[in-house]
Amino acid sequence: MKLPNLRILLMLSLLIAFGTVGPAWAASANGTPAINLTTDQWKGHTFTFLALPADKQSAGYDIFTVDQASRGFEGDQSVRIPYEQHAGKQVTVTEVVPYPAGPDQQEYIIYMTVNDTGEKLVGRTMRGQLEGLVLTADLTNAQKQFLGKTIYPKLRKLTGLYIPGSNETPASVPIPIGSPVTVVDVYPGNQSQEPIWLVVSFNGEKAVLPIAYSWTNTTVNSWTENSPWQEVLFTEDPRLSLGWSHSLWYQIETGNVEEGMTKGQVLLSWGKPQRTEANDSIWIYGNKKINFSGDTVKSVEAN
User: Fold this and answer.
1) Helix (H) or strand (E) holding 138
2) Prediction pTM value
3) Where are the domains of the chain?
4) What does the pLDDT look like over 217-251, one tens digit per residue?
5) Strand, coil or helix: what is 144?
6) Which whole-number Å values give the CA distances from 240 to 58, 144, 203, 246, 250, in the listed order?
7) Which residues contact 185 (CB under 8 A, 6 or more apart)?
8) Are 90 and 47 in contact (CB under 8 A)?
């Protein structure tokens, strides 16, 4: 489907004003709910520019000043706003304008004002997301909840912390699943899917655990009732709180799956499946297939 003329849309959208509905709330382990904002609820909320990966910094953000937006939306990358002048700055969304982008698909034009300079910017979502931004409230809440606390990652290795000025790629930090680490810093990362970095200390080494604090700026069909960070970490020692046997933890730590395990235990051991079949009763991992009876592993076989 051909997109509407964006020059006309930009002009008309400046004249449009409409209300928003209340935000959705997700469960939070510490009793403080995360705000989940659908894109049409962004008006009035503050976002922070993320860092960009080193290989994307020279291109800048895929966001434009209002007077250059038409050129930018038509593919002129030379009018992107520069990275150095915007990284870490905060913007407030002043208007959100929907437009049809294909069959049963709606995207949004997002108008923003840079808080400290008053610069007027505009961006366009792709698949419901605007790259390069994190909801500032998510960053603040993550700092309040995690900084200085002990958490228990659901991962076998963490990304090593890059040392500024170093030419070496940081090595991964191996870690037993569910081991305690201390959060020593929290700041904006460089990926919109997991925009917040928890810098953690484990056995004297520092590493990064990227998280999303809420479902804001993620595709709505990926939302669940829990906060997204609960997919990658425990806030309590799982070896005490879950009551699983030592032999079961050994299977998880060594990457095994066996009959009788629950879906949650399989997720810890093997991670998310590549795909699911038969109404979530079959999980596919490469050449392996897990058959479930309800929530319990019935069999593991070659795919």
Assistant:
1) helix 136-146
2) 0.86
3) 6-134, 138-238, 244-302
4) 998 888 988 899 999 999 999 999 999 999 999 99
5) helix
6) 48, 24, 21, 11, 15
7) 147, 197, 198, 199
8) yes
